[in-house]
Design goal:
- Helices cover 24% and strands 34% of the residues.
- Helix 2 links the parallel strand 3 and strand 4.
- With 149 residues, the protein is α/β, with parallel strands linked by helices.
- The chain is elongated, with a radius of gyration of 17 Å.
- The protein has a single domain (3-148), classed as Tetrahydropterin Synthase, Chain A, CATH 3.30.479.
- The chain has a six-stranded mixed sheet with strand order 4-3-1-2-5-6.
Amino acid sequence: MTTRIRRYIETDTGHRVPNHKSKCRHMHGHRYRFEAEIEGDVVQDPGVSDEGMLMDFSDVSEILTVYVHDVVDHAFVVYEHDEQARSALKMMDSDHRTVVVPFVPTAENLAKWAFEQVEPHIKSAYGNRLRLVAMHVRETPKSIASWHA
């Protein structure tokens, strides 16, 4: 039997959905929550730091911070083929944080992107078969998208 844990980080990130039929086609931002769901066996090795845990929550936070938060927090995520938005963003200060991606930056696509950034870094130090099983992205309090392995 396996155990699952979840840990999240939050970012303030801008985006737009260029072909959207409604207001999401406009530049705007969200307080995103990126939540990693990890599965494995609880560490049973006596005396080790992670004894009784799947993975230390602070280790999960560090991975989420480095590979998601520090990339998109206070940045504008823009689709590589969204020429209008890219042109407007080029007029910003040279230190403006623009992240160009090969997909329309919807919550669904950001969940998959975040999963792909985090998954290689979820490693078992104690042979407890850790694996990232899902990345959940909350775009608004009522809107959540998930990508599952």
